[in-house]
Specification:
Length: about 350
Amino acid sequence: MHDDTDFTGKAVLVVGGSSGIGNGIAQAFRQRGADVHVWGTRKTAADYDGVSGSDLSGVGYSCVNVGDPDAIASAPEPFAEGRMDVLILCQGTVEYQRREFEQEGWDRVMAVNLDSLMHCSRRFRPALEASAGSITIVSSLSGYRANKGNPAYAASKAGAINTTVSEDGTRNAAPYSFFNAVGDEPPMVVLGLLKDPATGGMKNTASNIAATGEFVVNLVCEADAEKMNMTSIDAPADLDELEYANIETLPSTAVTPERIASSPVSFECRSLEMLEIGPRQTIVIGEILVTHIKDEFILDPDKVYLDTPAMKLIGRVHGSGWYARGTDLFKMDRPKPLPKD
């Protein structure tokens, strides 16, 4: 058992935990004492025997089609007495040969990658509320190969610059698309950090977070796109990327790393957990200590209504250099609550 964190007695469900990143997360929790159950797409756990990137030893398993809301609602309880402490949503699917350009393919991908997040959360909300548990959504996109022809898969990925400081005081900045907000009490974010493919060691951002436990997530506006891109340079650890990219900063209030002055929104964070979920990847779960929002984007400070479109945020989509503007937006009202029995 790993002794960096202790999840003994905790019930953890990993949706999409049968292979890949989700399976790495499931085994990381199991190795730290948790009672782990995974949902996958094959009929039985034995159907994954011999599959690369799949290890279901020591975990429970259920076959659930999360693209079907009724299947989510009727799936058997993963743990006795309906208990649950952690819900990890790591499901994902993709349609190749440009099938996502057709409505049927688009709908299938969206049903799994987006719609099912809400359906799973609604299904297990009572159990998580009873245990004061947490939900983590893991969203990832290819960083080395283009996802051309997969518009549904590549949709809605956020772009961010993380700023950190090494133990010797060297400032670091790097862009990340493997980033998401995952909770609000306390507010939390999750980062997916890949290791150096040449050395297998941690890159600067991960090393700095491991050493200091602090980082700042800065959302990127279109005006900062070029500067953000400059921080992605492969450079020695002693290079100050903020100075190199001529990025102006402001002092943070709760952590040592500075925040980017031009960022519409910045989150000052402290690391809660760093999980090694595979030979090349690390997940960082961070608690947001302070949030900075530029005054011009606050419509109502009492109700915290924000003018998000005015921020002109950009998002990482497919491949090594493609980004999206957040200008093609539409709004839908939530359905009215159904009457309770």
